[in-house]
């Protein structure tokens, strides 16, 4: 029986999974990435008592302003890696994997052949990509809505501890459960 080729996918990440160290420990590799991916009409907040965030849908603040979360678009995620991410994110419990659209910078070239992030009208060159994202599913009472989650602080103060106490044990449990 012939096996169908399993299609790779993408995933927008906005918290601890932006760290190459976390990805390497969880997936065994660092997938290709598109930085500066933007998910509109969402906000990112620390989960109370935890070192990781959740994102929730948030209406636009006005006609010219947008609540948005900047993250990374992971590329070429295999079906097995997607299952690992689902397990890690406790998909269906803490988070719900949802279809979203993110904006990613797309580069064009000016008349001198130099890369430009802006079109002739001064507007940013962006591409809209349909992807997956893990949306917080446990309501706002478990989030610190007063501020955004701080990725740099996570890297400086919590990354090593998080890798040892959360990511590596999770990878071991995943391997036992899904392989």
From TrEMBL:
The keyword Transferase applies. It comes from the Eukaryota. GO terms for molecular function: transferase activity. SUPFAM superfamilies: Gamma-glutamyl cyclotransferase-like. InterPro entries: AIG2-like, AIG2-like_dom, GGCT-like, GGCT-like_sf. Coiled coil: none annotated. Signal peptide: none annotated. Residues 11-149 form the Gamma-glutamylcyclotransferase AIG2-like domain. Keywords: Transferase. Pfam families: GGACT. Belongs to the gamma-glutamylcyclotransferase family. This is Putative gamma-glutamylcyclotransferase.
């Amino acid at each position: 029986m012939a096996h169908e080729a399993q299609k790779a996918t993408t995933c927008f990440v906005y918290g601890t999974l932006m760290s190459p160290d976390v990805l390497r420990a969880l997936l065994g590799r660092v997938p290709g990435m598109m930085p500066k991916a933007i998910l509109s009409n969402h906000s990112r907040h620390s989960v109370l008592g935890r070192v990781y965030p959740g994102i929730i849908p948030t209406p636009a603040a006005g006609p010219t302003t947008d609540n948005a979360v900047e993250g990374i678009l992971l590329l070429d995620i295999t079906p097995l890696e997607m299952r690992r991410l689902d397990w890690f994110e406790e998909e269906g419990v803490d988070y719900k994997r949802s279809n979203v659209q993110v904006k990613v910078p797309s580069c064009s070239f000016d008349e001198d052949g130099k890369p430009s992030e802006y079109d002739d009208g001064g507007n940013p060159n962006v591409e809209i990509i349909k992807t997956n994202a893990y949306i917080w599913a446990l309501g706002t009472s478990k989030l610190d809505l007063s501020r955004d989650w701080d990725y740099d602080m996570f890297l400086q103060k919590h990354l090593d501890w998080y890798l040892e106490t959360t990511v590596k044990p999770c990878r071991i449990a995943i391997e036992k459960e899904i392989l």
